[in-house]
What does this fold into?
Amino acid sequence: MRIGIDLGGTKIEAIALDLNGRTLARERVPTPRNFPETVSAIVSLVQELETTLGRTGTVGVGIPGAVVPETGRVKNANSTWLIGEPLGEALAAGLEREIRLENDANCFALSEATDGAASGARMVFGVILGTGVGGGIVMDGQVWRGRNLIGGEWGHNPLPWPTADELPGPACYCGKSGCIESWISGPGVAAEYARTTGRTRTTPEIIAAADDGEAAAAAVRERFFDRTARSLATVINVLDPDVIVLGGGMSNVEWLVNAVGAALPRWVFSDRVSTRVVRHHHGDSSGVRGAAWLWPAR
It folds into this structure.
């Protein structure tokens, strides 16, 4: 049995899978806002699943950050109470077994590459389009973290092939301007609408208005499609993946997959583009399932 944990900013979800990937049980609790209670919550979730199912399992945990191999401590976590903490060590002590930790975007990519929308593909790029813009790379069933633990972090590259009115671009929290994330994340799309109309709306409201025929909202949506295509073209130019899987809230915008697929040939350095662009298969469950898949069958 494999147990996966998705450690999010607002909730911690746990899932138990059998060796064929079927869901045996699932639990979730609110995320505590400090390190000791977060560790206790994860340990309790695992123990509850194992008590309910009457067996023990391997444990993988997806986190909103990365673990530095030399120290075992967390870095780059937007759940800031995890930063600098030995999360894996603490969980291993509490559960009395080895624990595997991985970035949550990498878990998403692994899930979709293992038994999701990109099942069977050798090279998969998993995309998170939500509050932020992240990604993960899976090659031959293995996560590619990279030397600096930022493999797949395409959101903090500059928007490619910018037009004059896209320069220098919105300020990004990373300290630079014009990052992909500042354009095509949910908040980025909402900010674009506010800049161009002087009105404030949530991103779902903007997309709904576009569907209803509002010209200003439809123009913002079209620019979102175009910028996403330009940005993913540079991923293809570097990685040349078999499949790009779109996840996160913005991936649910109708026509995004078709619009991006149609626009890619204009930007990709090739006479043909056979990379498939698809929506996620497992939805919000991809992260927690990917955490479980951090352990091979045994």
User: Anything to note?
Assistant: The chain has two domains: 2-107+285-292, 117-280. The first helix runs from residue 35 to 53. The longest strand covers residues 23-30.
